[in-house]
Design goal:
The structure holds 2 protein chains of 2 kinds. Chain A is built from 8 helices and no strands. In chain A, α1 runs antiparallel to α3 and α5 runs antiparallel to α7. The relative contact order of chain B is 0.11. By secondary structure, chain B is an alpha+beta fold. In chain B, the strands form 2 sheets. Chain B has a 6-stranded antiparallel barrel with strand order 1-2-5-4-3-12. In chain B, strands 6-7-8-11-10-9 form a 6-stranded antiparallel beta barrel. Chain B starts with a helix and ends in a 21-residue tail after the last helix. Classes of the chains: A mainly alpha, B alpha+beta. Chains A and B meet through α1, α2, α4 and α5 of A and α1, α2, α3 and β1 of B.
């Protein structure tokens, strides 16, 4: 694959990630399922910060809102925040070894889920279970794989 | 052109990332505000749900294709055995239906009606599940029927075994159904054995009865049916079976759990129901006797002062959406004696008999 038109690639990979997010799974698989779309947004925001930009984060978040039926703007806000952090810190993160990147991704996913949790509470939906945080762990663990797979679609050289 | 732009340094051209982030944040907050308080986003939602439909179909297509494949390669022997099974099932149902007609006539006579009642279900349609969301906080399904098929919000959705939930949001070609097991969903129920009423709240996979005291008369394996209050589900639809009562002390003391009878994992097809408003068992969404029932509803507290056991549960039916709250009051819920079981199926067209 070439890096001639990364925007097309970004769109394509985001679509695949959305599909992976929506595929019905048995209970425990669904609980442990990483937030694929967030991971893909994080990848493109750190590797090609100009490629998707804030629009990628905001648009993906809005898409998640529509598909998950949540308050319109909730995922958009959380994902915008994470995208902004990734774009701001992309030089710092990109240079780190994969293990440290995983830690950063874990932190970013925690920020993302905390934001959603806070919005849930504000909008009069204060129910919560500890299982909602599990995907941040699996997301961090799967990050090297995400880098490996998405790296095939994009190489900076 | 794009490629060359992408290689330029990040800073110094176009609006800064910070400004874009601020714009995105403000936009999100405005959207959330209108989605929570106003109806401005209704149309936007409707359009977005329409746009989402192709992707939902695409995501569910591998499952559908696999199902089609396995179904088209079923052996003759399997089909024959399935056929035989369906035949015997049909015979059972025919016998039950025969008995039901007689019962319905008898019921009408007991209620003092000379003409038999119109059937409860006016119209039903099948819909296929194209998306399932079953994490502990959100129990929803997406079905492939929307506004163009006449689906309306708050329609009851069932499968062959019991209540699944109700339509939460309608899109052009698809709708979102909130399951009874969703934590934000509550369904007014009644224990069939003793007409004890309460509200079953979703718990992400099963149901809880948080408004029943631990010493109330429920047992394992009791059947819960919808009580007809609340204006969405008609009286008498099977909902769940009690599976566990914690009578010990501890953080979960007094917890009463119930396993829903309807399931979205068994079958891909669900049934959307529309009810005949003339039938007394139909949900009382728009009470035809609003002034009358309101009067009896306000008389309730006075009768309650003389003795809780004289409170007639039928009086609670007129107050539609507020009815579950009043029915869940410990006094009202436990005052159901076997003597006034007839009140379990309130008839809006007939005034409740004086006790």
């Amino acid at each position: 694959m070439s890096s001639r038109n990364p925007r097309l690639m970004i769109f394509f990979t985001a679509l695949v990630a959305l599909a992976l997010t929506l595929v019905p799974l048995p209970y425990w698989f669904a609980v442990l399922r990483p937030a694929f779309l967030v991971l893909v947004v994080l990848y493109w925001s750190t590797m090609v910060p100009r490629g998707g930009g804030m629009l990628l984060g905001f648009g993906s978040g809005l898409t998640l809102d529509v598909f998950e039926g949540s308050l319109l703007g909730a995922h958009a806000l959380a994902l915008s925040l994470v995208t902004y952090l990734a774009i701001r810190l992309h030089l710092l993160v990109r240079a780190k070894p994969l293990f440290e990147q995983s830690l950063f991704v874990f932190a970013a996913l925690m920020v993302y889920e905390s934001m959603l949790w806070v919005i849930d509470g504000w909008s009069g939906y204060p129910l919560s279970t500890p299982t909602r945080w599990l995907h941040t762990l699996t997301g961090g663990l799967i990050w090297p794989l995400v880098v490996g797979v998405l790296g095939r679609f994009y190489s900076s050289h | 052109v794009l490629g060359s732009n992408l290689d330029r340094p990040l800073y110094g051209r176009g609006p800064s990332a910070g400004l874009r982030f601020t714009v995105c944040t403000l936009l999100s907050i405005v959207l959330m505000y209108f989605d929570a308080h106003g109806h401005l986003t209704q149309r936007l939602r409707y359009a977005l749900q329409g746009a989402a439909y192709p992707i939902q179909i695409a995501v569910s297509s591998p499952g559908l294709a696999w199902q089609w494949l396995t179904q088209s390669f079923v052996t003759r022997a399997e089909l024959r055995s399935e056929n035989a099974q369906l035949r015997s099932q049909m015979r059972d149902l025919q016998l039950a239906a025969m008995r039901e007609q007689a019962l319905e006539r008898e019921n009408a006579e007991l209620r003092g009606l000379h003409a038999s009642l119109p059937p409860l279900i006016k119209h039903w349609q099948l819909a296929e599940i194209i998306g399932v969301e079953t994490d502990p906080l959100r129990q929803r399904i997406i079905i492939d029927k929307g506004a163009d098929a006449g689906v309306t919000a708050n329609q009851a959705v069932v499968d062959g075994n019991g209540v699944l939930g109700q339509v939460a949001r309608v899109g052009p070609w698809s709708s979102e159904v909130i399951l009874v097991t969703d934590p934000s969903h509550e369904i007014p129920v009644e224990v069939t054995r003793n007409n004890l009423r309460s509200i079953a709240v979703g718990n992400g996979g099963e149901l809880l009865l948080p408004y029943l005291a631990a010493n109330s008369d429920v047992r394992d394996d009791d059947l819960l049916v919808s009580s007809g209050l609340g204006g969405v589900y008609p009286a008498g639809l099977p909902v769940a079976r009690i599976v566990g009562i914690r009578r010990d002390t501890g953080p979960q003391a007094g917890q009463i759990r119930a396993q829903p009878l309807g399931s979205v994992t068994r079958d891909r097809e669900v049934i959307l129901l529309q009810f005949e408003s003339q039938n007394p068992d139909a949900p009382t969404a728009a009470p035809p006797l609003a002034p009358d029932t309101r009067a009896t509803g306000s008389a309730r507290p006075q009768s309650g002062t003389t003795g809780a056991s004289t409170t007639h549960p039928a009086h609670a039916t007129g107050t539609t959406s507020h009815a579950p709250a009043s029915a869940s009051a410990p006094g009202a819920a436990q005052s159901n004696t076997p003597g006034n079981t007839a009140a379990g199926h309130p008839a809006p067209s007939i005034p409740a008999p004086p006790p």
